[in-house]
Each structure stands twice: as C-alpha cells, then as structure tokens.
Amino acid sequence: MLNRVNDQKTDIIEKLRGGEGQIVRQTLIAPEDSCGKFKMCAKLTLEPGVTIGEHPHMPDAEFCLLLEGELLILDGGEEHIVKPGDAWICGNGDSHYTKNVSDQTAVFLAVVVE
Fold first, then answer.
1. What is the pTM assigned to this prediction?
2. SS3 readout for the chain
3. Confidence label for 114 from pLDDT (cuts 50, 70 and 90)
C-alpha cells in the first residue's frame, strides 16, 4: 500500500503522554493500512522545549530513529542524548520519555508494533 506524502495525515497533539508542548505527527502508514502490524507509524516533530511524557510499552514495542536534530531520551533507566542516525527501541514493560532540550527542531520516525 503506497501512501504518498500529499495524502499523509498530519495532526497536532497537545501534551503527549503528559509531556509539554505540541507535537506534530505525520502518519506515514495508518494502523488500518498496516496488515494489523502497526499501532503507529509516524514522523514526529518536536520543537525546542517539547517533551513526550514517560510511558511504558507492554505488550507492544516502539522503535525510533532520529532523522534531524537532537533529543534527550530515557532508555533502560538512563538518560542519553541521541543524534541523527541513532535508533532505539522500548518494550517488555520498560518505560521511556523523549525531550527536545536543544535549540533546534527534532524529527524522528516512531513505529509502535504489536
């Protein structure tokens, strides 16, 4: 199933998972178009100061790939700065959060799988 960029839905999410600010979510493949595999497949944009609140993944898992900018993430109970090309995954009941503590826009791919 092809989903051309001009057909992709973009929405604004306020205070995602109890975080701060607005996230722009560009849905790349909608859940109903993913053969039952994705809960979310999207490109997320966080302006400086925007955060996604801490949340667990169980039984699902979330894979992320930073495309632009820089983010502070919680992974395995430790904070890390991630840069473009860095990838991470959260599952098995672990929790994570994402914060844009830089002065530039950050963009990442987020795929939540069953």
1. 0.93
2. CCCCHHHCCEEEEECHHHCCCEEEEEECCCHHHCCCCEEEEEEEEECCCCEEEEEECCCCEEEEEEEECCEEEEECCEEEEECCCCEEEECCCCEEEEECCCCCCEEEEEEEEC
3. confident
